[in-house]
Amino acid sequence: MILGFARQPVRHVLLKNNYLLRYKYSTSASEAPPIKPGFKRGENVVAKRPLDFDDVSASFATKSDYEILRSIIVFKLCGIEFFVKNANRLLKLGDKIIGQRITNLIMKKTFFAHFCAGEDSETIKPVIKKLENAGLGAVLDYAAEADVPETPTERKEGVVSARTYEYTDEASCDANLEICLSCIEASANRPDSFAAIKLTALGKPELLEHLSTVLNHTKKVFQNFCESEQDIVKMTELINYEQFDRGLRAMNINLGTVKTRKLFDKMDANKSGDVDFVEWINFLDPKLLGGLNPKFKTQGLKTLSEEEMQQVRNLKKRLKLLADKAADLGVRLMVDAEQTYFQPAIDHFVLQLQRTYNRERPVIYNTYQCYLKDSYDRIKIDLERARRDGFFFAAKCVRGAYMIQERARARDRGYSSPIHNTIEETHANYHKCVDIVMDNIETCDLMIASHNETTVKHVVQRMQELGIPIRGGGIYFGQLLGMCDHVSFSLGMSGYMAYKYVPYGPVHEVLPYLVRRAEENSNMLGSAKKEIRLLQNELVRRRIRPLWKSGTGTVVQSQ
Predict the structure, then answer these.
(1) Could you tell me which residue ranges the EF-hand domain spans (predicted)?
(2) Which stretches does DSSP call E strand in 470-512?
């Protein structure tokens, strides 16, 4: 396949106006999905110790007094609305007044030191060693980000542009590839290790956005065929033959009864008499959907140019090198979620990688942002695609990292926000998403990337109810470096597979990432307040403990 990784047989069907579709033979829907090697439900389900998210002595044991004080200052600054809203302006102002060098030095000693491990694979080693000594793993992530420029005709006052890697040329993507390869190699020295990558580091963001537009139109055509009025594609939506025939005719594609029936039957892989979305998307080659039919041309959709196709081939080569390296070294490779206007293309490439590399064990993980309204249905669809094609589903579930940008962009461009309206809806959806994966855990791996104590307790309770082993069951917990240490360290000490997401990179390139961390801490003020309180309690405990040991118990009691 032009956009795929799997080496599978394909055929071509030539339609009117050179409208070309591709299909491949699908794995039978009745084929039993694979079971993870060594998985035994009901074994190793008892934790070493009960979870205690208030145990400050254990949670902050690896921090010095200076690091605790710095953490308190950083969290308090994140709670100041003016500081967070104007972070980018303040950084630019600092560059003008005191110079970029001094501004970067200040950031390096404060926010960078708190949220990032270092500037390269060597300087991060002390941080990783600290985590290992506390029973925590590390998910390495090169976190440099930059703005994506918009063309003058597309730029609109107040529109929020994407935050992603800066694309200069294909050589810059090759340079990022080398960084990602070194990240995987650095992760390989530890068991059960992870590394994280972003596709916008490996390909042109505008290419991903264009491809995502074509893929979104693929979904829209499906919904038009099945005469759905919903915004989100669901597995319950089906196209029967009559709808398929009407849909083709509406697009001015008149094949005749025999050819239309033959095409429909080939789409209907499981011979159910209906075509669901999995069969639909597996059949069509997205590269050829836009621009070849006059109906599409009137909607402004274009086929990928030859230059873009070369960029796609380059991106595929980079992804293959990374996946090969990860598979060879036993490293799990997580592909980060990004903005919604990139995500369909990212999902497409990740799925192709999973079809190739997740046959024997979970290697490639996709990321689902559960603050998105369509995340649960996307997970259901991808679970079914994994089942039908016979590979392991592997996912990281997060709440989401681009809420401010996504809502502002949707408002300024005049479309409905893709994000749930309330935090309560997001919480409920997150639990629903992780529950459906845990119900199928024999054939899945799941990273619970959450700072929410209620969510962590919910997952732990579900693990006990379902008999999922604490170690070897395929459930992992992850929190960002510098955040929610009281949860991470408690999980690690209790025997759960707990990890810290460890960003690194040059200070000036990581500043956008640090701004997002400040924004997220501002949005999670309740959790930050608890963390500040626990940090303050640990400072007090350290100050009064020597007094207690010296025999001045009355001083301790007076405090």
Answers:
(1) 255-290
(2) 475-480, 498-504
Q: Which of 33-42, 372-381, 438-447, 496-505 has the lowest mean pLDDT?
A: 33-42
Distances from the Cα of 137 to the Cα of 447, 491, 514, angstroms: 13, 11, 22
List, for residues 204-242, the tens digit of each pLDDT value.
999 999 888 888 888 888 899 988 888 788 888 999 999
Sign for the CA dihedral angle at 513, 516, 520, 522 comes to positive
123-134 tens-digit pLDDT: 998 999 889 888
d(CA 195, CA 199): 13
Helices 170-187/306-329 angle, 10° precision: 10
**41 in Cβ contact with 470 (< 8 Å):** no
Please answer whether residues 40 and 467 qualify as being in contact, where contact means their C-beta atoms are separated by less than 8 angstroms: no
Q: Residue 12's beta-bridge partner residues?
A: 22
Residue 248 clears pLDDT 80, i.e. is over it:
yes
Rounded to whole angstroms, the Cα distance separating 4 from 287 reads 11
Contact between residue 359 and residue 8 where contact means Cβ atoms under 8 Å apart: no
Q: Please report the pLDDT score of residue 134 as a whole number.
A: 86
Residue pair 496/456 in contact by the 8 Å Cβ criterion: no
Token pair, residue 275, equals 């075509």
Phi, psi of 482 (to 5 degrees): 90, 0
| Structural contact between residues 233 and 274, judged by C-beta atoms closer than 8 angstroms | no
> Can you tell me the distance from the alpha carbon of 393 to that of 357, in angstroms, rounded to the nearest whole number?
11
Is the pLDDT score of 163 beyond 70? no
Residue 514 belongs to what H/E stretch?
A: helix 507-523
As a whole number of angstroms, the distance between CA 383 and CA 388 comes to 9
- Give the per-residue pLDDT at 71: 92
Instruction: Please answer whether residues 523 and 400 qualify as being in contact, where contact means their C-beta atoms are separated by less than 8 angstroms.
Output: no
Is pLDDT of 481 > 50? yes
pLDDT band for position 346 (50/70/90)? very high
Q: What pLDDT score does 545 carry?
A: 64
Average pLDDT, the chain: 82
Contacts of 175 (CB under 8 A, 6+ apart): none
Q: How far apart are CA 356 and CA 431, in angstroms?
A: 29
pTM of the model: 0.82
Helix (H) or strand (E) holding 93: helix 87-97
Residues contacting residue 484 through CB under 8 Å, at least 6 positions apart: 451, 527, 531
Question: At a CB cut-off of 8 Å and minimum separation 6, what does 150 contact?
Answer: 159, 161
Contact 188, 259 (CB under 8 A): no
Residues 68/492, Cβ–Cβ less than 8 Å: no
Listed residue (487, 480, 423, 433) closest to 456, CA to CA = 487
Largest CA distance in the chain: 96
| Residue 211 confidence (pLDDT) | 87
- For 335-379, give the secondary structure using H, E and C: ECCCCCCCHHHHHHHHHHHHHHHCCCCCCEEEEEECCECCHHHHH
